[in-house]
Design a protein that fits this description.
heteropentamer; A alpha/beta; B alpha/beta; C mainly alpha; B: alpha/beta; 14 helices; C: mainly alpha; MetI-like fold; 2 domains; 0% strand; binds adenosine-5'-triphosphate; binds magnesium ion
């Protein structure tokens, strides 16, 4: 039943303990949203799920088998610092995956195959509002445009597991809603299992079917690096995406007492 | 490599020097091809600009023959175990190598100076022989090894006060103000000899190769002796100068245009004496190799059958057979 | 403005030369070291237009053509080596472990010291000259390409893996395109040693070529031939360099969107 | 594992050499081209431990010391030139307009072709050798440094301007620190031409040095001296190369946090 | 009275018209928040205010004089892709400005001067929650940590004009509130004039005293590049920062009709 199984996962960088004893069991088709304080290890967790980094201890398995040592096409990623291919135009960035799939040796489509591949991404291009910019290089795009391109590139692959690291951070609310719709539609159609890091609690509640909060349980004020973060709250939102988070839950997630804030800003 | 066996195609190499320019002319003019055809073989004459590299290539077996001096023949191929025969004794330096001072008028003034020369070359040999005549020896001065390609430019600097070199560099430097020639190879005539050396085994198995080379060479010599302007101009151009410049270089070279004089020179009693000087020089400078117990380590055979040095290790042979054929018109 | 500024140092150099030359020539009118511009012009013109008696060739053009051909072949071989080995070393950790130290070591062998071995391996013909250029330029180019591959951000490699690319596709679609501009830069920097090795090779075994001519007249200190030849070589190299830069800018437009290139 | 993999090609080379050598030596026991390892070892040992008769020096060590001194001085001059001109060209647009084309042009002049002019400028002594190394390596290093400066992201320059830095502070605190690792890379790549120019310089006029020895004994094809000397030069260069890499990794730790370096 | 004066400002990249006839007059001490669709030219506008880029036409003047051609220390910036100095540790990044100001020639402080400079940034370090990470290099920080560092670096300069390009995009709500407080306090103390781009409408209303909306007024569906954006709404929020934006204004700012979204996601 459980699709992604994380057990006693730990990650250290030198003396810095980032993640500590993370246990998690996620069913296929779950939309996990992940929230947590900045620097607590969310991106690190995604990088491990992607096989970009190796855990210090513990195991991660997908569908019963341990993670392969390298990233594979069944796991898609949108990085926090959105990265697309600088040498390809917007359109070529989107066509790339299709070219990989079809042209085994050249990795490149020509003539009518190429036109039809372009046709196939045209809808996506207009969905993400980059139709007009399709012939530009990434360096000629605004931050938000690059981010949309990165998202579209990952979605076009329709991976079994989709890892999103603050994917909508640089988008205005209007486009963000469009992107939500796009994502949710694909998620439903494809039965993807999604892990999405976000700092927007509304977004987390709106999109997720399960909410994971990462935080440190133990804290040594003398050496703040000594302990790592783990999953401290694990809320089932199965009842169906909600738009407004219950305020008391938001408080639980970010339990900063007013006093602290005052003390800091005084 | 030039393994001893009968074959029909041969390669010899040469480098640019006044006495060897005929080799280039023989190749381009077709004289060589004509003679090779006569003997039913194929001979390629290859120009290699770096003199030492040409000898090295011959020594390691890439070529069947190579033009070089008697001294370098003894040290490089013969010292390296390659049995080598002097096929054509072409000329000897008769003023083509010289010692130049910027300060001082006589050779004795060289004491205490830095002397720029190509170390271990015939220049070095000339210096050593010349120093003997004024009662000096090498420790009385400092030899600064200088590459021949840069000799003229080096001579133009103030750092250089004394040098030993050969033509055409010699005359270029002498044309500079304040230079004087204090000794030259005409003081030791017949000791710096320019020879076409061939692999003894190849020659033994392929006499036609020797005949073709010698025949072509003396046909060209005849052209030169007759002052054939086209041939001489071609040689001059190939050596980077003009006819006048080339003739000036020839003046200080004792060319053996006539095979008979070459035979006479090779058979003269002076040659063993010269080779002894050379062998001693080489041994003194450690060039005969580490295994060499004495200057007589490598044997040198002369036309009369006498041998200088180790009879069991004869690696350099002066042989007048083929030049004699040319003299006799038997080719 | 930039053009004008750029011309200043050239004019300055010409001025310094003219002054030094006329000083030496007035001291000794037969001085050969620093000939006047007229002398050099005349000689150069003769080499470009008057056929040589011996061969009937126009010296300058034959030399130029032969040299450029050797240079092109040598650099071509280098580029091929740089692409195959550079990408293999940069991309495959095992190949890197196996070859990087060896490459680092042999790239440090000065080829001129092992000439006899090069010559028995490649003979003394055109192959040897091309080989010397390739041997002299390839190691640095391989290293540059390997480093260029290593410099591709890790994110992009991960990304392309998630897009389902095979290793071959990864190399041809992501690695190679990003390496090209760096390869051209490496090639441009490689022009300098390439010309040096070309000239060395021609000085050792050749009967034509720009380096051969310089070698031939060097013993007469014929600076009226050497200096125009050097200027000519430099001009050729400079034109090749600029052509490569323009080509790179045009074909790899994306690589020049940010920052400037020399 | 990496160590083991890295050793394979070296062992392979040694094996090929041993085979070729013994083949030649069995054909002609006096063959000089490919001496056996024993021969080379003996010769090398003698040069390292037995004083020369004439001067009483230990040849190998005197040669090594003198060559390294020339190399160090030459590269030192290059580094200074690279820093001053490289940063000026990379950082000040006007200087770039004025000097970049000139630099591109003169860097393409093969120094060996203008030796006579170098001689009248620097004489024929140690200065000339150091100068040849500097002239040979500086242009590429200047270009590398200038490009490194141009490669600093525009954001960082803007940022440091908003932090109130003077031009001098900008150069010393932001430009230089980011250029250092690239300069060391340039220096490492510059070792190759530096050794070539060192050897050429010592071949021109010298009484000691590794290059001098190689060219001297070339006159009698003493490969039993040349090959160990080449191996020794390569080893020295390799050690310098690794030392520079280690130094760079240690001092500029930040530059090695992402990606690998060769 | 007006401090920053923008008049008929236009910016083009090749054929792409990004900004068009932007007119603006901003009083000293104003906190301008800027919102607008992704890719409409907000970052470009800030880059022009910083003198990082040059307008195609029009004028910008500060305090009556035209903008200098290079960035100056009286204008601070936090870039959208937060950039700090990779060769300096967190602490050194913060000390840098002080070093520039004090050590004219070396640009570097030593001994006790250095300790006291470090002392001076200690409070900032703990305010932004990077005390524990002070000896790390930027490459060893999470995205949010780098962003906080970049903000602190700009704030420490106390510039007259502060330009912030989505400065809190990568921060969790808790830390974001801390940063808001820090920023507001400095703004009040220093009488800074702030231009802040944000996609968070709540943030825009909470922090700003004036809200600028960038959008295209003219639109040619055949060539979407033909026209640029300008300031379409200019709201005075002087009455004092509000926490909740009036919903109808949010609708004005992002006037995407529901239908469009549906059409796209269907
Ligand atoms: N170098 C360039 N060449 C061509 N077009 C460019 C260039 N730089 C930016 N643009 C275009 O200018 C427009 C505005 O970019 P800008 O970065 O200012 O947008 P933005 O409003 O900050 O967007 P975001 O909210 O996504 O960051 C974009 O459409 C972008 O494609
Ligand atoms: N290479 C590294 N060396 C040392 N520490 C590192 C390294 N990479 C990351 N870290 C540390 O690991 C911790 C977690 O980083 P991570 O990027 O996972 O945080 P995050 O939860 O994604 O934060 P944010 O919300 O700010 O993106 C941080 O404290 C960071 O400083
Ligand atoms: Mg993160
Ligand atoms: Mg922006």
């Amino acid at each position: 039943m459980s699709f992604v199984e994380v057990s006693r996962l730990t990650k250290r960088y030198g003396d810095t303990q980032v993640l500590e004893r993370v246990n998690l069991s996620v069913a296929k088709g779950t939309f996990c949203t992940i929230v947590g304080a900045s620097g607590c290890g969310k991106s690190t967790f995604l990088r491990i799920l992607l096989s970009q980094e190796v855990q210090s201890s513990g195991t991660v398995s997908v569908d019963g088998t341990a993670l392969p040592p390298e990233p594979t096409p069944d796991r898609g990623i949108v990085f926090q610092r959105y990265s697309v291919f600088p040498q390809l135009t917007v359109e070529d960035n989107l066509v790339l995956a299709e070219e990989f799939a079809t042209a085994r040796w050249t990795g490149r489509l020509f003539g009518s195959a190429r036109s039809s591949a372009k046709q196939a991404v045209a809808e996506t291009l207009s969905n993400i509002g980059l139709m007009a910019a399709k012939d530009r290089y990434p360096a000629q795009l605004s931050g938000g445009m690059q981010q949309r391109l990165a998202i579209a590139q990952a979605l076009l692959m329709r991976p079994k597991i989709l890892l999103l690291d603050e994917p909508f951070g640089a988008l205005d609310p209007g486009i963000r809603v469009d992107m939500h719709d796009l994502l949710l539609r694909l998620w439903r159609e494809m039965e993807m299992t999604v892990f999405m890091v976000t700092h927007d609690i509304h977004e987390a509640f709106k999109l997720g079917t399960r909410l994971l909060v990462f935080d440190k349980v133990r804290h040594d004020p003398d050496s703040p690096e000594a302990f790592g973060a783990t999953v401290t709250y694990d809320l089932d939102l199965k009842s169906g995406p909600v738009t407004e988070p219950p305020t008391e839950i938001a408080d639980i997630i970010y339990p900063r007492p007013e006093e602290t804030t005052d003390a800091r800003s005084s | 490599p030039a393994q001893a066996q009968e074959k029909t195609s041969f390669k010899v190499c040469w480098s640019i020097y006044v006495g060897w320019m005929p080799w280039g002319y023989m190749e381009t003019s077709g004289i060589m091809d004509a003679w090779a055809e006569k003997y039913g073989i194929d001979v390629e004459i290859v120009q290699i600009n770096d003199y030492i590299e040409s000898i090295n290539q011959y020594t390691i077996g890439e070529y069947d023959g190579c033009s070089m001096t008697n001294m370098d023949a003894l040290s490089i191929p013969s010292g390296g175990g390659v049995d080598t025969t002097a096929l054509i004794v072409g000329d000897y330096s008769n003023g083509n190598d010289g010692i130049i001072l910027k300060q001082g008028e006589t050779l004795a003034d060289i004491a205490g100076q830095n002397v720029n020369l190509v170390e271990l070359s015939v220049s070095h040999y000339l210096l050593a022989r010349a120093l003997e005549t004024v009662g000096l020896s090498e420790p009385d001065l400092t030899v600064v090894s200088t590459s021949d390609a840069d000799m003229v430019a080096a001579a133009a600097t103030d750092d250089v006060t004394a040098l030993v070199t050969w033509n055409p560099l010699l005359s270029e430097i002498l044309a500079m103000p304040g230079t004087s020639l204090v000794a030259d190879s005409s003081d030791i005539p017949g000791e710096i000899i320019d020879i076409m050396m061939v692999n003894t085994d190849v020659l033994a198995d392929n006499p036609d190769f020797g005949k073709a080379l010698v025949g072509a060479w003396y046909e060209t010599m005849a052209l030169m002796a007759s002052g054939d302007e086209a041939a001489l101009t071609a040689m001059a151009e190939a050596s980077g100068t003009d006819l006048a410049g080339y003739n000036a270089q020839l003046d200080s070279t004792e060319m053996f245009f006539d095979p008979a004089t070459a035979v006479a020179f090779t058979e003269s009693a002076d040659l063993p004496q010269t080779m002894e000087f050379v062998a001693t020089f080489l041994f003194d400078h450690g060039i005969l190799g580490e295994g060499a117990p004495s200057s007589e380590f490598v044997g040198v055979a002369f036309p009369d059958g006498s041998v200088y040095g180790d009879e069991a290790n004869v690696k350099l042979r002066f042989d007048t057979t083929y030049m004699q054929m040319a003299a006799d018109g038997a080719l | 403005m930039a053009l004008f500024l750029g011309a200043i140092p050239f004019l300055g150099l010409a001025g310094v030369y003219a002054a030094a030359s006329s000083a030496r020539l007035s001291a000794n009118p037969a001085d050969k070291l620093l000939p006047s511009f007229e002398q050099m012009g005349t000689t150069f013109w003769r080499m470009a237009t008057v056929p040589e008696v011996r061969t009937g060739d126009l010296t300058l053009w034959v030399d130029t053509f032969d040299s450029l051909q050797r240079l092109g072949l040598g650099l071509g071989v280098s580029v091929l080596l740089a692409l195959t080995f550079g990408i293999a070393i940069g991309f495959v950790p095992h190949v890197r472990s196996a070859l990087a130290p060896f490459l680092a070591a042999i790239s440090l062998i000065p080829p001129i010291t092992v000439l006899p071995i090069l010559f028995i391996t490649f003979g003394l013909g055109e192959t040897a000259k091309v080989a010397l250029i390739a041997v002299g330029t390839a190691p640095v180019m391989i290293r540059s390409v390997a480093q260029a591959v290593l410099d591709i951000p890790r994110e992009q490699i991960v990304k392309v893996q998630t897009l389902g690319a095979s290793v071959w596709q990864m190399v041809t679609r992501v690695v190679l395109p990003q390496v090209w501009p760096r390869l051209i830069t490496a090639l441009r920097l490689g022009l300098i040693p390439a010309f040096i090795f070309l000239i060395s090779a021609e000085a050792i075994a050749s009967t034509t070529g720009l380096g051969y001519r310089i070698f031939l007249v060097r013993r007469y200190l014929a600076m009226d031939v050497i200096l125009p030849y050097v200027a000519w070589i430099t001009l050729l190299a400079f034109l090749i360099d600029r052509a490569l830069l323009l080509f790179s800018r045009r074909i790899f437009r994306w690589a020049f969107l940010e920052g400037e290139a020399l």
